[in-house]
């Protein structure tokens, strides 16, 4: 691909040959300047443009001085993705480059694009990413909670019973949770989290990330509910929840696990397996395993 140029602080995309294949292009979640130079090059040079919202993409391209120049601009959203995927794959088979952009953020992350990408993969066509902005990663960066291991759980179900079951399944997850939520359902979701996760679990409510009214509320679930108050917040919401606290495991549970492990493992291996599985000190488990063997 021919490279873009920067002259006197102004980016100038230079249309050029973009490699054949489906290019998944991340677009800003707020500030238009958060788009990457590579993403602009792909948008400037792709043979076909596809977007969740064609008006949003055209506006973004206008901001950055990228002309459509008569290229096809195809709408690909939740309601037509399965039908349009065949047309996109046909273009890929002709050796064309197709750039697909979500309305905001990274395609496939609670956005359309999966059906399209899967169809391209099934057809043996290249699928490439022009990475960039993502509300998920932006929220992890500013939440102040552990980010070494996390689980993105998408949107909680809107129906109350399904949402309660959904949260209960996540309650013991040993990784930081990231969810998207509607502003009008946020307070109810947090109240149900207080029951499923415990009111003292640490959370961060990230609102309008990268936008003018960006706000991050941090604290326990109870504290954050109080910060929000009686009125629903406005804007896009990302909810980050601390991992579950370590489970307290008693000696009886350790011994039961050891008895099963010792049926097929040596003492040292059984102790290591049980310690890792139950997340308890290995030395303690090894001593119990030795005592268990001596009693047999």
Automatic annotation (TrEMBL):
Its EC number is 2.1.1.198. It catalyses: cytidine(1402) in 16S rRNA + S-adenosyl-L-methionine = 2'-O-methylcytidine(1402) in 16S rRNA + S-adenosyl-L-homocysteine + H(+). One of its GO terms (biological process) is methylation. It is found in: Cytoplasm. Its main location: cytoplasm. Pfam families: RsmI_C, TP_methylase. GO terms for molecular function: methyltransferase activity. The keyword Cytoplasm applies. Residues 22-224 form the Tetrapyrrole methylase domain. InterPro entries: 4pyrrol_Mease (IPR000878), 4pyrrol_Methylase_sf (IPR035996), 4pyrrole_Mease_sub1 (IPR014777), 4pyrrole_Mease_sub2 (IPR014776), rRNA_ssu_MeTfrase_I (IPR008189), RsmI_HTH (IPR053910). Residues 251-293 form the RsmI HTH domain. CDD domains: RsmI (cd11648). Keywords: Cytoplasm, Methyltransferase, rRNA processing, S-adenosyl-L-methionine, Transferase. Catalyzes the 2'-O-methylation of the ribose of cytidine 1402 (C1402) in 16S rRNA. Belongs to the methyltransferase superfamily. RsmI family. PANTHER family: RIBOSOMAL RNA SMALL SUBUNIT METHYLTRANSFERASE I (PTHR46111). This is Ribosomal RNA small subunit methyltransferase I. The gene is rsmI.
